[in-house]
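tl;dr need the bound structure. longer version: we got a ligand (fe (iii) ion) that a collaborator sent over and nobodys looked at where it sits. i said id run it. heres the input, straight from their email, havent touched it
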Amino acid sequence: MNQPNQMPKNEPEWKKKLTPEQYQVLREKGTEQPFSGKFYNSKEKGMYVCAACGNELFSSDTKFDSGTGWPSFDAPVAEGRVKLRPDTSHGMNRTEVICGQCGSHLGHLFDDGPATTGKRYCINSVCLDLKPKSE
Ligand code: FE
């Protein structure tokens, strides 16, 4: 996992570190095509971490099948792991979810989740890596 002091300091450094698809979503706030990512349908147990910096974001225990084609979670694994920002792009009022450590774009937060939190963290697969549970 990267320590904050190894974090890329500017966009050219991020571009070097990330794949073109990762860069487009994480740093340019793109959205991957639904049902295209590696995790939307995954039931594997473990910890989902930020693909840009390794910050632990979401436990597989909070992942649910939203039917949207993107990995969806009830809540981050701990407070501060993600940050929220208003996002009025594309003529919509949405809440952007960014990594609490590196500030990269992850996805959006909606208030139609099925769990007690009522939240649906809708996250791009390309922004995540899965650390499988070691058992
Ligand atoms: Fe990050």
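gonna send this back to them w/ a short note. Helices lie at 11-17, 20-27.
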